[in-house]
Amino acid sequence: MTVEADIFDALKALAGNRVFPDVAPWNTARPYITYQQVGGRVIRPIDRAVPDKQNGLFQVNCWADTRMGASSLALQVESALTTSTAFACKPEGAPIANHEPDLDRYGTMQDFSIWSSR
Q1: Which of 80, 85, 75 is nearest to 110 (CA)?
Q2: Strands 53-64 vs 88-91: parallel, antiparallel or unpaired
Q3: Which of 18, 75, 81, 117 could bridge to 32 as Cys pair (CB 3.0-4.6 Å)?
Q4: Strand 53-64 and strand 96-100: pairing?
Q5: Is 113 in contact with 57 (CB distance < 8 Å)?
Q6: What domains are defined for the chain?
């Protein structure tokens, strides 16, 4: 299983399976969650062996109709990711509030460092 599949499994119950890599389809009902890998740490042992673990820095975005809805979902996302048994996860900072006036939706962004099997 990929780390992306593990992230989906950890988050799917929070938004009725509306969890998407990169972007959500145009008319997705809110609330929903998107995520994307935005970097990570590379492990390269001196002996050049391929490690069995990998690290990814993932930005997770929560979208809702209200600021409170987005903020509440963000707290649930943080809890679900940091308590997952599929990988080791820690937040790299607090959520950042976002508002998309053209789309009339509220959001949060938060980065997580996730260590997973390769």
Answers
A1: 75
A2: unpaired
A3: 18
A4: unpaired
A5: yes
A6: 3-117 (3.30.2000.30)
| Closest residue by Cα to residue 77 from 41, 42, 114, 38 | 114
pLDDT string in tens for the chain (118-residue length): 799 999 999 999 999 999 999 999 999 999 999 999 999 998 887 888 888 899 999 999 999 999 999 999 999 999 999 999 999 999 999 999 999 998 889 999 999 999 999 9
pTM over 0.85: yes
